Fold:
Amino acid sequence: MDMGHTAFIGVGSNLGDRVANCEFAVTLLQQDGLTKLLIKSKWYETRALVRWCDSTLVPDYINGVVRIETELSPYELLAALQKIENRLGRVRTGKKWEPRTADLDILFYDDMVIDTPTLKIPHPELHKRMFVLRPLCDIAPTFAHPVLNETMQELLLSLRANEVNEAIQVVREIASA
Structure:
């Protein structure tokens, strides 16, 4: 059954049972019947972009990407993702790099480009992040970024060649639960 729209969602966690948190987030995403999981990447363990938030060491992340079909608009999908984050115990204190039980980001929604204060699609930093590009390449290596006009594989190869993000260059695959 075609639900009308395709979206790629970044899934991450760096608190608690990180893999279980990611798996549960994916389960919750499908629970309302308004989204359907098409494919899920491997889970990867990566270093946090920032190692310290205030005086707290930021734990390593588990990250992956899912491709879904959805009936939800981009804004409805954002609200659904935030609801899942809240259900998994995410607390928002306003600190950008704080640890979190769940982090769900809309990476792409069809080939839309949205740039508002509350929603930016495509995700503005995804082309700089190994922990996003590597799992995207697992499930959609030939998908083209609608603004940069490069495939996920081309963006990943460019990132590796430039070594712009050495904090996450070492990526360890984690088996799905």
Remarks:
- The longest strand covers residues 61-70.
- The chain has four helices and ten strands.
